[in-house]
Q: What sequence folds into this?
């Protein structure tokens, strides 16, 4: 597909013309989906697509949030994964304080997400942390971080 799309003879002609070009010489089950995904993931095509050809995402009302750090989202899986093996992105957006943070994750199990959240929330500059003696402050995760 790279020859049909990326080479000098391919010239990034778009999905329809690339399908015609590929199907003139080859066929395999799922060729339409493969060609569509290949063209849509092409960096050159994404940067040069004509304005107005990509549908706009409708705007949504965002609820007023007064509690800091209330909204958290996980994006993924990401294909292909990063060179470091990260397949997900934990994104933390605080609409109350205008704070945003993104953390790459290899997996989205409870411990990975908790570690990332602790890394974001806990002081990173050596400040001491005072606890109330709760069992959560005695957990192995807490002790590893603090």
A:
């Amino acid at each position: 597909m790279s020859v049909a799309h990326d080479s000098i003879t391919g010239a990034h002609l778009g999905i329809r013309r690339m399908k015609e070009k590929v199907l003139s010489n080859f066929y395999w089950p799922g060729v339409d989906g493969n060609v569509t995904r290949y063209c849509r993931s092409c960096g050159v095509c994404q940067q040069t697509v004509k304005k107005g050809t990509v549908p706009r995402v409708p705007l949504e009302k965002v609820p007023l949030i007064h509690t800091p750090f209330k909204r958290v989202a996980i994006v993924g899986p990401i294909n292909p994964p990063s060179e470091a093996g990260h397949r997900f992105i934990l994104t933390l957006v605080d609409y109350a304080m205008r704070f945003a943070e993104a953390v790459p994750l290899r997996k989205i199990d409870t411990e990975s997400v908790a570690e990332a959240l602790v890394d974001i929330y806990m002081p990173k500059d050596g400040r001491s942390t005072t606890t109330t003696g709760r069992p959560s402050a005695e957990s192995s995760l807490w002790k590893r971080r603090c």
